[in-house]
Design brief:
DNA polymerase, domain 1, three-stranded mixed beta sheet, 5 helices, single chain, Ubiquitin-like (UB roll), about 10% strand, about 210 residues, two-stranded parallel sheet, 3 domains, alpha/beta
Length: about 210
């Protein structure tokens, strides 16, 4: 009888342990989904509030009466005066002809005239006039342009097909390599090929 009672006691104890184990397992399953969900929310929440993206950047080209002509990178909605300050206007620059408070346009060219020179109409990549003009555009003058003495503004104003960017490259090449010996030497300037040379050769001189 005692042996039978012991067997029942052992069996009962085993069954009780199994039930406790199963109950613990079920309880763990019940709790784990909540924990996973909370962890997921903690990881996802930061992504739902991304930091503000930096302002878009634009590039503009500044030439003419400035100390450092070139392409400058600014923020969208920056103003003309900020670009001019970066390039450093020369003492003889006439800033009265420039709309300094105008918002910049990506890809535009800003030509800073000198005293007594008219503002130049410049077409940017938007295809619109970016600077005021003092008079309607006129055809190239019949007088030949001396490419060894003309300023970037004069080259752009008097030679058809030569824009502000290209005229500045002509001046930069001249300053770096010396005076042009013959008009054909202008083809050494980047951007002036045979076709463009043919269009301007009758309107330029080196003396």
């Amino acid at each position: 009888m005692d042996n039978i009672d012991k067997r029942y006691l052992i069996a009962g104890s085993f069954i009780l342990l199994v039930l406790v184990f199963l109950a613990g397992f079920k309880y763990a399953e019940y709790r784990n989904p909540d924990s996973s969900e909370q962890l997921e929310l903690i990881e996802v929440n930061p992504a739902e509030k991304p930091e503000r993206l930096e302002d878009s950047l634009i590039q503009v080209y500044i030439c003419g009466e400035v100390k450092k002509p070139g392409v400058y990178q600014l923020k969208e909605n920056d103003r003309v005066y900020q670009a001019v300050e970066m390039a450093g206007p020369e003492d003889k620059a006439d800033l009265r002809l420039i709309d300094m408070a105008r918002p910049l346009v990506d890809g535009e060219t800003i030509v800073i005239p000198g005293e007594g020179e008219p503002a130049v109409e410049v077409a940017g990549i938007q295809g619109a006039s970016q600077l005021p003009v003092s008079s309607p555009a006129s055809p190239a003058s019949s007088a030949k342009v001396n490419i060894n003495k003309a300023t970037a503004i004069e080259l752009a104003d008097k030679l058809n097909g030569i824009g502000p960017a290209l005229s500045q490259r002509i001046v930069d090449y001249r300053e770096a390599n010396g005076a042009f010996q013959k008009i054909e030497d202008i083809k050494n300037v980047s951007g002036i090929g045979e076709k463009k040379f043919e269009a301007i050769k009758d309107h330029i001189t080196v003396r």
